[in-house]
Write a structure and sequence with these properties.
This protein is mainly beta and 149 residues long. Helix content is 7%, strand content 39%. Strands 9-5-6-7-11-3-2-13 form an eight-stranded antiparallel beta sheet, with no helix packed on it. Strand 5 and strand 6 form a beta hairpin. The longest helix is centred in the C-terminal third of the chain and has 6 residues. Pfam families: PTS_EIIA_1 (PF00358).
């Protein structure tokens, strides 16, 4: 089983509360979402694995069980064209859980008129493949979010 941990500190709100129908409807997969603390921070890898997709606003890490975990930094942040995001790794890099992937500031995202809410999604998984799903409460970076069979 893959243990997926929080890439950020903040308040867990669950996918249903994400202000985007693709995420709130779990169209890309089940998971949860974090309303991040409002301070400059580094989004870290939620699993050990390989960075298979990397954009300023989102990244996917594929673990040894071929589970792809998407971390999406804010909603509609692709429209910022990378402004305010700093990549700390490269696509194809092997990363460890807790390793910094993207530096960003949720305050700047809000100032640009975007939601800083961050979905953390088990790509192409079924909802019943997840266990211990956290959908509310405060989390620190590295706290458990869900298990994935």
């Amino acid at each position: 089983m893959t243990s997926v941990t929080s890439p950020l500190a903040g308040r867990v709100i669950g996918l249903a509360a994400v202000p985007d129908p693709v995420f709130s409807g779990a169209m890309v997969g089940p998971g949860t979402a974090i309303d991040p603390v409002r301070e400059p921070s580094v989004a870290v890898s939620p699993v050990d694995g390989v960075v298979v997709s990397l954009h300023p606003h989102a990244f996917v890490v594929l673990d040894s069980e071929d589970h792809g975990v998407l971390t999406h930094l804010g909603i509609d942040t692709v429209q910022l064209n990378g402004a305010g995001f700093e990549l700390l790794v490269a696509k194809g890099d092997t990363v460890t859980r807790g390793q910094g992937v993207v530096r960003w500031n949720p305050v700047d995202v809000e100032a640009a008129g975007k939601s800083p809410v961050c979905p953390v999604v088990a790509l192409d998984a079924s909802a019943d493949a997840l266990s211990g799903l956290v959908e509310d409460g405060e989390v620190k970076s590295g706290d458990a979010l869900f298990g994935w069979e």
